């Protein structure tokens, strides 16, 4: 078995296969596609020359499935015609499951970072006063606009609660 690592394949191969996927993005029912001889399979006829040049003869396309459906593909290649066995397929699907989980987690973490950055930019650069308080009125977050409106510094407000600066009238 030869591992297809795009870093070790030619630029011509990368360009030729870039964006190729046997499934639609987000597909929920994508199943593995096993091709025992890439030189004989009609579905891959467009890629015969690049497969021959790279020494790829058998290919297994394993879908990377996430919560929203297909997110990418994982490809196993052999340098000779090969009949895929059930244990190989199970092994490939196990790897694909772990890779998909890691990819989704990384994507979720990136989205969370972006969301936090947007929140902070909106909150702290707003031209109006904004505060976030606890149920007891303690300041959790406050921006410069609120300090200016209330006439206190950040340090002064941090020593007080919302109730301390609110008029006592019922």
How big a fraction of the residues is strand?
A: 15-25%
CATH class of the largest domain: Alpha Beta
Order of helices and strands: HEHEEHEEHHH
Q: How many beta-strand runs?
A: 5
What is the name of the CATH superfamily of the largest domain? GAF domain
Q: How is the CATH topology of the largest domain named?
A: Beta-Lactamase
Instruction: Please tell me the overall pLDDT.
Output: 89
| Cα separation of the termini | 78 Å
How many domains, as an integer?
A: 2
Given the helix and strand composition, which structural class is it?
alpha+beta
The CATH architecture term of the largest domain is 2-Layer Sandwich
Radius of gyration from the alpha-carbon trace, in angstroms: 28 Å
Report on this structure.
With 170 residues, the chain is α+β, with helices and mostly antiparallel strands. The protein folds into two domains: 6-119, 2-Layer Sandwich (Beta-Lactamase), CATH 3.30.450.40; 126-165, no CATH class. It has helices at residues 11-17, 48-54, 86-125, 144-150, 154-158, 162-165; strands at residues 33-35, 58-66, 69-78, 131-133, 139-142. It has a three-stranded antiparallel β-sheet, covered by helices on one side. The protein has a two-stranded antiparallel ribbon with strand order 4-5. Strand 2 and strand 3 form a beta hairpin. The relative contact order is 0.10.
